[in-house]
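Standup notes
- HV: blocked on the assembly model, inputs below
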Amino acid sequence: MATGRDKHASRSLGSTLHARIKRARVLMVGAGGIGCELLKNLVLTGFGEIHIVDLDTIDLSNLNRQFLFRKEHIKKSKALVAKESAGKFNPNVKIEAYHDNIKDPSFNVAWFSKFDIVFNALDNLEARRHVNKMCLAADVPLIESGTTGFNGQVQVIQKGKTQCYDCTPKDAPKSFPVCTIRSTPSQPIHCIVWAKSYLFTEIFGTSEDDAPELDHSEDSENRKEIENLRNESQALKRIRESMGSEEFPKLVFDKVFKEDIERLRSMEDMWRTRKAPNALHYEDLLKEVTGVEKNIAQKDQAAWTVTENFAVFLHSLRRLSNRMEETKANADTGNSSPILTFDKDDVDTLDFVAASANLRSIIFGIEGRSKFDIKQMAGNIIPAIATTNAMTASICVLQSFKVMRAVMAKDELGAKLKDESSEKSSKAEVKEEQIEAKTDEAFSQKISKAKMVFLAPNGTERRLTTEGLSPPNPCCPVCSVAQSTIVVDANRATLNDLVEDLLRLQLGYGEEFSVNSEAGLLYDPEEDANLNKTFAELGLNNDASITIIDDADEGARVNLVLHISEQHLGTEAKPIDLTQKPEIPLKPKAAPTETNGDSRPIVTNGLTNGVTNGATNGLKRTAKEAGLKDELVRKRGKVVAESDDDDFVIVDDANDGVICIDDD
Amino acid sequence: MADLPPPVQGPTAKEKKYDRQLRLWGATGQIALENSHILLINSGPGVVGLETLKNLVLPGAGNFTIQDSALVDEADLGVNFFLEEEHLGGFRAEHTCNLLKELNPDVQGHFISEPVESWLAQPDALEPYTLIIVTAPIRPGLLTKLAAHADQALVPLFYIHSVGFYSHFSIHLPPAFPIVDTHPSPETTTDLRLLKPWPELLAYAEEKTEGLESMAADDHGHIPYVAILLHYLEVWKKDNNGQVPQNYKDKTAFRDLVKAATRTDTPEGGEENFEEAVSAVLKSLNPPEPSSTVKEIFKSPECVIIRENSPPFWVIAHAIGLFYTKYGVLPVPGAVPDMKARSADYIQLQNVYKSKARKDLAEVLESVRFLERNANLSTHIEEKDVEAFCKNAAHIKLVRGRPFHIVPAEGDLKFGTNAKSLAQKLTFPDALVPIYIAFLAWDKYTATHTLDDLARASKTPGSSDADVDSDTGKVTSIALKLVDSLVKEASYTIDEEEYDTVRAQIAELARELVRAGGGELHNIAALTGGMVSQEVIKVITEQYVPVDNTCVFDGVRSKSSVFKV
């Protein structure tokens, strides 16, 4: 019986599970709000080895919830400080920290596959998708989580058994038609997007065409206006040349708040039924500006007057231009001019965007917004608090217990069956497959106990709602693919070797397919220019992956993802070879994606605020739960009388007092 | 958006630090949090209490005090992240207090390591605290004393269990706990009054839909949907004896009427504004009748009679009640959702709603001032509070706080007014009432067992390995006795087979609680601490609707349930 430090955990978890947890190696991606809580819970639960990856540094606005950090840690690496702080909670736990981007190639599939479980504690869609993909490739269970304000959710993802992160479509960020932003704004957000994605980027950044908020699609109605707008942008770019000069602020101001407005106003058709905009005049405002308080820009919760906005505009424009000039002066190479990017926490850029947005609002007769509000709207700020993170992170760990049980069941059964088969020592070949099928079944059965959990902050009947895990979406472009690793001698192997020898000869591909790398198309029947290039020449190095898309009319197979393992192979050996022949199932007939049928809004902090709060029903879920069960039953090839999912039996294990909490 | 007064000077480092939470509860909520003084009476492994406090120290609760007479032992290090080896043997209250303070220099922390019995015996011991959190185990006599204080001083009291995979908390709120800022979901807050339009709104609709049939395509495609619906409501009324659509059938017929009026000869083959109108029919064409909970507030005794010491909530509620009696509707909140329209038309529409909201507010304000004078009120009610109330009138909420169950050491527990509903829920698989019963049994055991002859420290079931079996028997029999008495007290008839299942379930839960040996699983404590602190914040800020009044969590199935006891 465990004593001391482990006493409580060992008793509640049972000593077998607890012992396995102490040997577990887990990865936590992200050391922010959820990450801090998660790390504490993992350390105190006794997980043996924890790796943390986070690219971010600590900011003052983190301290209201990220309790592993103090004021003196500001600007330091989240991962390293988190390791430092949490390491003290339990000296028996080994923590590795990486102040690095999880997308760095050194975190490759082989690296991911060293872990028993991966926890996502991220704040953006891109990284979530990446980790999802890596975990699928490495066949490692992933526990995905996210929060917004009082809302949160946790999802367990296991390749081939459950939906992956990309099985349900995620909302794209909202975009606005370019004409609404540039010519006919009617809401504060239109002016804020204009200030941030057009004005700021034209003056200090690269080009407006990069801004995801702007939808540049043309149609017959707006073609002429879009052409005009291009000319406007060009003119603004020319003004950018005079940055640093005395007249620069006036040039910018007159251009965007007077001339462009006057041009718009002259298009009478546009204002026949809309209220026409009224240009602002630099000289008039300049006369009044002396009356503005010095610290007006700090009054971030008041709506500023036109003169106050003007003052903040001038001041922030000057600060930003100075910064550009300084960067230019310090730059080693004179070729590329420096750029600034909008950052909600960079007060100069925020001031500029807030003041410019409000000046434009005044011109169009739209209500102004306070800087505090603009910061949230322009910076996609997601409210975040300690309480929600505490709950969400704990649920992650609860789900991880179920995943660990599945891992254990698989390992135990595997060991047992292997022992048995080695005793008999005959037909070991056949046995191997059977063992795999049986252990996989044991694993499936256990992992189906894991749940998708939602916080229901306003639920009157419950504070958490759960639903069973859904099986993978057969049309998912990410998880419903075949994967394999190829060994490549990059200096000898050519694309032709891949196409002809490996794909056509070994894997039986026909004529119609394409080979794609992350950079784009490498080969298809019309594109054969690369065939004689080697992998090295194509930049396909170790840990890169390529996707084969089968375009055959009949019997097309699902996409095949090949991970490259670079090796020097002897000259007698084939320059390129499969490590294992992959099974590539046929593409399902373009079935209607039922992915969105009842999908609950997913909190992806950083993307959507559209989380509804209603206490959710448990009813709709049963069909899907049943779906997963059916699949399990099918896989076993026999019908097991299963108790209802809601019943559970507490089984007292006579050997060590372990309690297995289970429902079968 | 948070309703924040303009600060005298720039945003301080403090405001920046709290930025992400100010966006949830605003400056008023933050001020309430900073003015609070939270008392934690900690016992057992003490993890859940400290996890709760951690989540309150981080967002900047003004003051906290920990009462805890335990000394730090080895097991504490394993579950309590605040404690390290160097603290072994020291007072847990002192060390946890100091380490909690490190989390946020804005927060003042205090500790009391005197045993709870003697400390509570002092008069006015509880005086400074604005909210009290107690973790099990605690002697029933002390808990009764705290409940009496909560009743008399109107101080919210939280009582928490966290044992193994299970946890529970109950909240004892003051008998009248009103909330104005309930933060309803945005979809439910739009109140356009389409079925009870006022003359200016009708005039607006008429103006915007004049010559509808012969309107140019571009104009037709830009009529705000509010005007479209009002226009066709008039058309509908002409054909239906002056009645607006009454039921679902009417509404779908009305929706078809609007749909049929959409022009399809446009380049897009339809009109966005008409689409908006069609999709708004079912949700917007409801009579603006206040919910029964709001009407109950108008009828409650505190609202009916205003005295000189009536809190502002009741004075404003009374004034709004008068408004409702007079007009049959609540004041117009004034917000207009985004819609396809020309800027000028949209702004004009906003102004129609805003000026009506201002007019309604002025009328309510006048009643408030009249009441103030008439009842000789001691406090002056601020206009902004009346305004906030008018805006939220349809969503105000009154929670009637009440004491939770305290299992007496001697004699039987009376389940009281909610016995019936509790008994009914016994068989609901998702209600988790059996876990609650098991916790009551756990309390009864600790109330009647002590660790040593000095009769000081309570003994939790299963805390010594040797006694696990006998303790399981004891707690199980207490639990089964409790459930029998609940069913009896409620005079509830329950199907015998179902009842056997419930009893078996309770026996299993009792066994599971004993097996944990009074130990906490850090992770469950952290989760429960998250839930409790969230409710504490709601109670302190008087925003959002707190749990009424008991919440149970099942960590085996990741399920929670809220019910009244």
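- HV (later): unblocked. Chain B has 23 helices and ten strands. Chain B touches chain A through 93 residues (CB under 8 Å).
- Next: hand off to the docking folks.
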